[in-house]
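Hello,

Our lab assistant flagged a job as stuck in the queue for most of the afternoon. It eventually completed. Since we weren't sure the result was trustworthy after the delay, we are filing this so someone can double-check. Below is the sequence as submitted and the structure that was eventually returned. Let us know if re-running is recommended.
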Amino acid sequence: MQLNPKPSALSDQQKSVCGIRSRARSLALFDRRALLHVAMLLRDSDVARAVRRHLLDAEHALRELEQTALARRAAGEPLTWTWAEACAIIRQRYGTDYGERTLTRLLRQAGVLRQTGAPKARYKELFWSTGTSWEIHAHAVPELLRRATQVERELRAFAGIQTRLEVEYAAALER
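-- returned structure --
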């Protein structure tokens, strides 16, 4: 069996969405199928079994989500994800472990959602109303993730500035 990685030059925007440092020169991307094949080549060890089990479980969960969404789409509804499904998709595809509460909090801070959880008018096209709640259009997940990671990065920078100010203040008091 021969694996063919798909080397790709990523733009800075793609790197920021994926959480890759801007200084990274290259990145090899493998699809899920290739990763499963590599895991199957691992021999009898506890790590190999754990890796295979995790990858197969993740593949199965993602397949179920996609089948459910396609069934809803066949019924005339657009392809949308609930918040829990969107978080699972983000975890699977982008490797970012946001829970529902964290994702909605970051999107509120980014100005995408109101405090009630409803989208602001400017971002309504990224969501689908079910009547009782809002679901995320499948095509909107990367954009929402980009906004959430951007806000998270800004908050971390502000926290760093705050910490530096506190340290400088404490040092000034000691003088």
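-- support follow-up --
The delay was a queue issue, not a problem with the job. The result is valid. The two ends are 67 Å apart (CA to CA). The first strand starts at residue 6 and ends at 7.
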